[in-house]
Specification:
This protein is mostly helical. The chain has three helices and no strands.
C-alpha cells in the first residue's frame, strides 16, 4: 500500500502530464479561468506537501484534478 506522500506525488505527476496535453487545446475564456484555478490548487498542493500537511495537500490536488477533468470533458479530451 502506498503512503499518502507517494499518492500525492503520483497525483501531482498525473496532473502535470494532463496539463501538458491541455496546452494544445483552444479554450474559451471561462475555461481558461478554470484551468488557471486548477493550476493554483496544484501549486497549493505542492506547498502543503512541503509543509507536511498531507491531507490538505491531497485535498488540493484532488480538487485540481476535478477542475481539470471538467475542462477536458467539455473539450472531448477525456
Amino acid at each position: 500500500m502506498a503512503s499518502i506522500v507517494e499518492r500525492i506525488v503520483k497525483d501531482i505527476g498525473i496532473f502535470d502530464t494532463n496539463m501538458l496535453l491541455m496546452d494544445k487545446v483552444a479554450l474559451e475564456p471561462k475555461q481558461r479561468e478554470i484551468l488557471e484555478l486548477a493550476k493554483m490548487y496544484a501549486k497549493d498542493s505542492r506547498s502543503f506537501l512541503e509543509k507536511k500537511e498531507y491531507y490538505t495537500s491531497f485535498s488540493a490536488i484532488a480538487y485540481a484534478h476535478g477542475l481539470l477533468d471538467s475542462i477536458r470533458k467539455l473539450n472531448g479530451k477525456e
